[in-house]
Amino acid sequence: MAAIGLKQLAKMCQQIGMALRAGLDIRKVWEHEAERGSQGHQQRARQVLDQINTGHTLAEAMRSASPYFPALTCDLVEVGE
């Protein structure tokens, strides 16, 4: 599967950031993400959600969907965690 586009990545990060700042649970945020975008995006978001539900960090979960999410994005998420 191709990597996420930069515009889609920016929009996703903005939406997730707003949801988390509003106090939503990370699992709910990724459940919502798994319902939007292309079928491929939904698949990758569901994969991230599954990894989070099994106890992995968000950065680990995003890396498991590699190469969909850029390595730099995963690194920045890890620093933020």
Structure description:
69% of the residues lie in helices and 0% in strands. The chain is mainly α. It is globular.
Rg estimate, integer Å: 11 Å
**What multimeric state do the chains show?**
single chain
The amount of beta strand, in percent, is: under 5%
Biggest sheet record: none
What is the share of helical residues?
A: 55-70%
Mean pLDDT: 95
Assign the structural class, choosing from mainly alpha, mainly beta, alpha/beta, alpha+beta, or little secondary structure: mainly alpha
Report the count of strand segments: 0
First-residue to last-residue Cα separation? 27 Å
- Which H/E pattern describes the elements? HHHHH
Shape annotation: globular
Q: Low-confidence stretches at least 5 residues in length (pLDDT < 50)?
A: none
Number of helices: 5
Summarize the structure in short:
With 81 residues, this protein is mainly α. It has five helices and no strands.
Key phrases:
81 residues; globular; single chain; mainly alpha
Topology:
Layout: H1 6-21, H2 26-33, H3 39-53, H4 58-64, H5 71-80
Helix pairs in contact: 1-2, 2-3, 3-4, 4-5
